[in-house]
Structures are given as structure tokens and as C-alpha cells.
Fold this protein.
Amino acid sequence: MNKLMKILLLSGVALSATACSSDYVMSTKTGDMIVTQGKPQVDKDTGLISYTDAQGNERQINDEQIVQMIKKD
């Protein structure tokens, strides 16, 4: 019974961790669609948007290149 409780607890933690981060889709002026892991961070001082792409790579893009940013369901 103890092993079952551990498995259920770990499963619950894993599900709650993945449910907290929402992916976003950014549309660029050139028509590209960028899917991010988590919410992109906007730096108003530099004009850059920092994000993690779908493959897990850290990237940046100029905010003037982004037309629309929406939360992915």
C-alpha cells in the first residue's frame, strides 16, 4: 500500500507542475508562428522578448517583429 501512495503522490506532483506553465504562440510580421514553452518575458528596456522554444532552446526576438501573442490551450 505504501508503494501505491508514493506513485499516486509523484503522479499528482508531475501533473500539477505541467499544468502551471502555459504555452504561447507568437505570430511574426513575416508570417512565422513561434510556439513557446511558458510565457515569454518582455524586456521593455531592450525591446527584446525572451522565450523558450518548443525544443527547449532559449531564444530572443525583437518585440517589433511580433504581431500577436496568444495563450495556447
Q: What stands out?
A: The longest helix spans residues 2-20.
